[in-house]
Amino acid sequence: MASSLTSFTDEARIALDTLSGRAAGLFSPSMRLGVTGLSRAGKTVFISALVHNLIHGGRLPLFEAQKSGRIARAFLEEQPDDAVPRFQYEDHVAALVNERVWPDSTRAISELRLTIEYESASGWNRLFSAGKLSVDIVDYPGEWLLDLPLLGKSFADFSREAVELAALPVRCDLSRAWRELASTIDPDAEADEMTARRLAEGFAAYLKACKLDDRALSTLPPGRFLMPGDLEGSPALTFAPLMTLSQGRPRSGSLRAMMERRYEAYKRHVVKPFFREHIARLDRQIVLIDTMQALNAGPAAMADLERAVTEILSCFRPGRGNFLTDFFSRRIDRILVAATKADHLHHESHDRLQAIVRRLTDRAVARANFSGAAVDVVAMAAVRSTREGTVKRGRETLPVIIGTPLKSETINGETFDGKAETAIFPGDLPEKVDAVFDVSGSQVDSAEPAIRFVRFRPPKLERTAEGVTLSLPHIRLDRALQFLIGDHLA
Q: What is the pLDDT of residues 174-229, one digit of tens each?
């Protein structure tokens, strides 16, 4: 997939940019870590927790450089890209620690430079290494990443696939208004701005409905229809798929010609620069997945999540270069796929959650050429908002999680006020992974699922006797760090 995303000119610009960055890195080593995931997967929380634990010396027993005491300090520096908004780390940590609220979700690209001073574990490396690594963390919406496959699709391809997806049982009721409108439109009729606007607004409304909790669908391009930013209302976003397209080129001046022109403009001016300026510059990547939300919504949502993960992973440039080629081209040599919010489950189910993520990932890896790239999966919680316990129910002892559910969260008919702590038994994940993807016979309006999760407030942090706030608690954040950057600190 990635090979079809750029032209020769794009590749030349990428090579020049890479050469410039590598030359600077000879004196100040750095790496670029991409952090992505679909909305509410926890990108902002992950970055905030990663930085907070490294700066404040958090408990990271599986992060070898920290465990062995080789990290002297970690601190924030000015980021190298002046045109990219800074990730507002301080604001996000204040929300987590002081207000106990989750920070605002990622709405656009942002960046943060974290510099780590360390001592190499190798005496030979200590002779030649500066013992300093800058990690440029690039945060971007996964919805935008799902646009990249559009670069390899014509408007006719995009229309056909969009119509097929909209007709699926899990989507058909949500897309009905848009499909009924589109079915009355003649693509070969004269171009009309108001018709284009009605189609685009109807299509965007259908995509937004798919994202709500009861469906929790993931494959929803174009991504800027959900997160338009400064493009809202522009012609580049005023297009939509059309039905019953004829073969051949569209008639000049027709509605189809208008829609096709705007679709191509969207790819040229929005999608391609995003890939060239950000994705093609990454060295490592973590993809965060809110598996809990999809599990809540049922097998159709899980199947759709699998489709989304496959498309996301197909857009990266995986592989490992050599000393010469690395000066001109970046390749992502490590990709971690992480199921977030593992703290919503008792640890007895963590292995099953990880097996579900492995199933999601294996098919994508099989379809893409990941030669030379290491891919791993983990079930984690960048910020742990619960603790574990047990409760008695008759003769049965149930493993539960204890925390403060968010206000208005509901389970078993009980609605929480956002203040009281409670113990919850969310249910057990099935032993057979295929069961959560089996859509045969499932209905959108099926009964309450056997597994049910609620969202919790961030934890109240403990303080030392001196009044110092401890670092943010987590589940397997240290394992993620070791996989993503541990080798650079060896």
A: 999 999 999 999 999 999 999 999 999 999 999 999 998 888 899 889 999 988 87
- Distance separating alpha carbons of residues 270 and 468, to the nearest angstrom: 45
Q: What is the pLDDT of residues 4-54, one digit of tens each?
A: 555 656 656 656 666 566 555 555 788 999 999 887 899 999 999 999 999
User: In which region does residue 117 sit, left (phi positive, over 0), alpha (psi from -120 to 50) or beta (all else)?
Assistant: beta
Sign of CA dihedral 231, 235, 237, 238: positive
In this structure, are strands 110-118 and 132-139 parallel, antiparallel, or unpaired? antiparallel
- Write the burial class of residue 401 (CB in 10 Å: 0-12 exposed, 13-18 middle, 19+ buried): buried
Provide the 8-state DSSP code for 221: -
Q: Amino acid identity of 121?
A: A
CA-wise closest residue to 32 among 80, 65, 82, 88: 80
- Two structure tokens written together for 176: 């009905």
Q: Measure the CA–CA gap between 294 and 299, rounded to whole angstroms.
A: 8
Strands 410-411 and 414-415, by their bridges, are antiparallel
Query: Are the CB atoms for 11 and 262 separated by under 8 Å?
Result: no
User: Residue 49 has which token pair?
Assistant: 């927790």
- Give me the helices (H) in 213-328, please: 255-266, 272-277, 291-297, 299-313
Element (H, E) at 1: none
362-379 burial code (b ≥16 CB/10 A, e <16): eebbeebebeebebbbbb
Q: Are strands 284-289 and 30-37 parallel, antiparallel or unpaired?
A: parallel
Rg (CA), the chain: 24
* DSSP structural state of residue 448: P
